[in-house]
Amino acid sequence: MKKVAIHSVIWAVMIAAIVWGASLIFAFSYGEWSFLIGLGLSVVLYFFNSSGGVLSKMAAYEASETGWKIQKDSNELKANVGPLFFGSVLYTLISFIATINLYF
User: Fold this and answer.
1) What are the angstrom distances between the C-alpha of 38 and each of 3, 4, 64, 73, 88?
2) Are residues 10 and 91 in contact, defined by beta-carbon separation less than 8 angstroms?
3) Phi/psi at 73 (nearest 5 deg)?
């Protein structure tokens, strides 16, 4: 668990550096966009690391319509997330606090 926490902090710092570098290149305000970028990254990472959601059920339904045999899994949503996801969530939380401090 300690290793995951350390890697998550490293990923959060790397995400912050990438967003900050992009804000210099593309001329947008880091303070205004950091939270939205972090939130979007967290959602995308969770979406692509999960299985058993709506898209999986739609794909299974379409496959069953074509006559293919499909393996029936349980109906629960499973997510295989790692330090990158936890780092993006950490970055999102820190940038949310920073955004609140920026505007209030």
Assistant:
1) 22, 19, 37, 32, 6
2) no
3) -105, 170
Query: Residue 101 and residue 35: Cα distance in Å, rounded?
Result: 12
Q: What is the maximal distance between C-alpha atoms in the chain?
A: 58
pLDDT one-digit tens code per residue, 90-102: 999 999 999 999 9
Return the structure tokens found at 8.
């998550």
pLDDT digits (tens, 9 = 90+) for 8-34: 999 999 999 999 999 999 999 999 999
Q: How many CB atoms lie within 10 A of CB 74?
A: 7
Per-position b or e across 31-61, b if 16+ CB within 10 A of its CB: eebbbebbbebbeebeeeeeeeeeeeeeebe
pLDDT digit string (tens) for 33-63? 999 999 999 999 988 887 766 666 666 666 6
CA 8 to chain centre: 13
**Per-residue DSSP letter, 76:** S
